[in-house]
Amino acid sequence: MNTKALSESKITKKLINIPAGVKTMLTIQAAALDMNLTKYIEQILVQQANDEEDKWLAPFFNEPDDYLSDEEAQAKLEQLGWV
User: Fold this and answer.
1) At what angle do helices 37-57 and 20-32 cross, to 10 degrees?
2) Is the four-CA dihedral 44, 46, 51, 56 of positive or negative sign?
3) Counting CB atoms within 10 angstroms of each CB, which of 20, 23, 35, 50 has the fewest?
4) How many whole angstroms separate alpha carbon 83 and alpha carbon 81?
5) What is the pLDDT of residues 40-80, one digit of tens each?
6) How many angstroms separate the CA atoms of 4 and 74, rounded?
7) Cα distances (Å, whole numbers) of residue 40 to 9, 31, 47, 48, 69
């Protein structure tokens, strides 16, 4: 798919809890890349979501232009345990 739709979505703000040791490590990594911590975490999350997009959405598509029917999609959701 590689639509990159996730990175082009409307921006929302979310507070998250990060363990102190993880925050320190991420701060060091961000500084090494000459970035601030917030931008670095945003970059990591967007990249992870884009990398995983095909993995999570692929079960719903047989071919790129072949969408599942509502019944097939519901069955697939149940098979994956998401419903």
Assistant:
1) 100
2) positive
3) 20
4) 6
5) 999 999 888 888 777 777 666 655 556 778 888 888 888 88
6) 25
7) 18, 9, 11, 12, 39
What's the predicted TM-score (pTM) here?
0.56
CA–CA–CA angle 54, 42, 57 (5° rounding): 15
What backbone phi and psi angles, to 5 degrees, belong to 56?
-85, -30
Tokens for 76, please give them.
């697939």
**Which tokens sit at 54?**
């095909």
Tell me the three state secondary structure of residue 62: strand
For the chain, domain boundaries? 20-80
